Amino acid sequence: MTAKQYLDSVLTELQIEAKKSLGQNFLVSDHVIDKIIQRAKGFNAKNLIEIGPGPGALTRFLKDFPVEFQVVELDRVLAEYWRNKGLQVLEVDALQADWSTLIPNTQTLLVSNLPYQISSSLVIERCLDPHRLMGMVLMFQKEVAQRIKAIPDQDGYGMLSVIAQTYWKVDFLLEASSHDFSPPPKVASRVLVFQRLESDLPDPRLFLKWVKAAFLHPRKLLASNMAAGQAKVSKAKVSEWLVSRGFSEKARPGELSVKDYIDFFRSFQ
What we know:
With 269 residues, the protein is α/β, with parallel strands linked by helices.
């Protein structure tokens, strides 16, 4: 049975349609699904989480992995559908879930065709978990995926890029067109693979505030942003640090690399 045939059968059985309010765009590409499943298998995880299983384009394969598996599903009808199939279901918004209970150990993998409206926030939150996932295989709107992987002086490079790349090695897996979904979204999508990087930053949430302050106004001077934002560091001290690292005192946020931001943060703690 093809992915499209499977989707139609489940939707017909449940007498439902995709809900725009929940960002539901269901995968119908067998090629895309197979690539995601094969990459997920490569992690050899001991625990598996899926956000937004929907009718089950990925779920029907993930549930057969020989590991503990649970899904996070906000849609009441679909949550009940998967409970009746014997799955562990957490019926809640993924951004409101208690991830300390969802991640039982460091061998936990997250796989999801993410609702676009929660994707950036979810990545940032998973960077801040005290006991983090071993990896993630996630579908994003193409523009968000570009921002996550962006490098200094590249369009889209910003707070999301720095935070994601501080805690994860991020690789491109594939690009999906609008025709790979039902209903088709208005934008292209990309799947990214995240592998955990070890970090000894003592306070991830403080680091997040620091980077947010740096990119407060991306086109303004970094020194001005740090003085005006939550960090409240004087322009003189930031300028001194920049010059000591070989930057102009008029450097803008997009000029510093991820490593530079980590060093910048450490220098002022």
